[in-house]
Write a structure and sequence with these properties.
11 strands; globular; mainly beta; 7-stranded mixed sheet
């Protein structure tokens, strides 16, 4: 699976952004698509995931109620709608994929920078 993330940028606190992750190379029916982020000096952390076939979603507590993950099956694309952004959301955001029965993500995109100014 090849993943191409896009949509990052520089915004102010309270603004919104939508990240996209275009997938290619394999049918995603048996995959879970995830978003992770890594802030400077911090470890990479889970943000959200969606099981491609049934749309089952999960979120980190820090983004619940503000971020929404979705997928467009026709475009083979996963989205992360980020609302009410905070400076602490500043990070490089990565999309990833894993086979639904596995625990680890083994396909990763290149990352897109999100910077939220106060």
């Amino acid at each position: 699976v090849q993943l191409q993330a896009s949509g990052g940028g520089l915004v102010q606190a309270g603004d919104s952004l939508r990240l996209s992750c275009a997938a290619s190379g394999r049918t995603l029916s048996y995959y879970v698509m995830g978003w992770f982020r890594q802030a400077p000096g911090k470890e990479r952390e889970f943000v959200s995931s969606i099981r491609w076939s049934v749309g089952l979603t999960a979120y980190a507590d820090s983004v619940k109620g503000r971020f929404t993950i979705s997928r467009d099956k026709a475009k083979n694309t996963v989205y992360l709608q980020m609302n009410s952004l905070k400076p602490e959301d500043t990070a490089i955001y990565y999309c990833a994929a894993r086979f639904w029965q596995l625990d680890s993500y083994n396909y990763w995109g290149q990352g897109t920078q999100v910077t939220v100014s106060s």
